[in-house]
Amino acid sequence: MGILSGYRVLDCSIAMAGPFAAQRLGDLGADVIKVEPTSGEWQRHASAGGASGNKINVSFLSLNRNKRSLAVDLKAPEGRQILLDLVKDADVFLQNYRPGVAKRLGVDYQTLSAINPGLVYVSMSGYGEDGPYVNYPGQDLLLQALSGAMLSAGSADQPPQPAGQYLVDAITAYTAFEGALAALLHRERTGEGQLVQVNMLDAITTLQMQELSVFTVGNKPQTRSAEAHAHCYIRAPYGVFKTADGYIVVAMAGLDKLGRLIDEPFLQGLNDEADSWKFRDEIVACVRIRLLGRSSAEWLELFRAHDIWCGPVYGYADLVADPQIAHNGTFITYDHPTEGRVKTPGFPIRFSKTPAALDRGAPLVGEHTREVLEGLSLSQVDIDRLLAAGVVGAP
Fold first, then answer.
1. What span, in angstroms and rounded, lies between the C-alpha atoms of 249 and 352?
2. Does the residue 347 lie in any domain?
3. InterPro entries given for it (predicted)?
4. Number of domains composing the chain
């Protein structure tokens, strides 16, 4: 019994941001019904990294646990009516259709809120519901580039640096998740539902609260230096440094102490706040040269013993094998009926009384169509007729 047990979510989203947000609601116990076309949601047919899976590719598998699948043709009048009937008892409706599509399908906020005034309707978009960019594709890399974030790291002679994650999709998912929870809390207090609008551009922009305030309030330009630096608004040294056998990261070390540990006279006696900005390139350059002299393990042992902020640079194999990850139970392992033994990241929030749980893995297309329609009191004869007509789908 998760903290959201008893709430029903209709997930009409595709790709990553929407399904990820809905999955988080499902992880906390909500009954999430994934409403997808009879041919299956787009992500089922677009495997990330070529990981195709058996019947469900890994990309879809990772974003759609704890959901039931209803395969239905919303362009068919009977199919749309099924969704409208589900809306009557739903708590959250989540969609990331292209602007205008929800209205054309007859599942826009005005239509659905008239059926269920208590509905929390979460609408996700790339750039907003209107405006000059309304028809631009809302894709992660495009939004990373537009956000300005790519020019906060690296060196001046390097190309802009994208993140190593689907960063905009992820932060948009969490923003929508947060919005849905806040709107549900409001409904608990007042009884009224509302429209919650989230867009990728605002999500990635507001994520940079500190950096952009340094620019807009502090009037500090976003300037990359000659030496590679992990963030233009953090004092040196701050970044990835090669060692004799690999790489480590060093963050905001005290310059005099670091100078003594790496035997670098230039750093000794420098003022951390003033000189770390004035001599940023020189500091990075001399640290880069000195750290080539020992192994990663040696530097990490020495720096940690003297309270220098540092750490290893992991690949995924290192992360999965890390003892703290094992201690935290960060990954969950379960048996999926078609994909076999599955290991994926688990639940980032821990509740003492209402913990998140895995109730089911990602569903097959329409795996729960019959179950959902039976919940609407449709007879087996009617369900068979809808299946035969292609209005709904089931395995």
1. 35
2. yes
3. CoA-transferase_III_domain, CoA-Trfase_fam_III, CoA-Trfase_III_dom_1_sf
4. 2
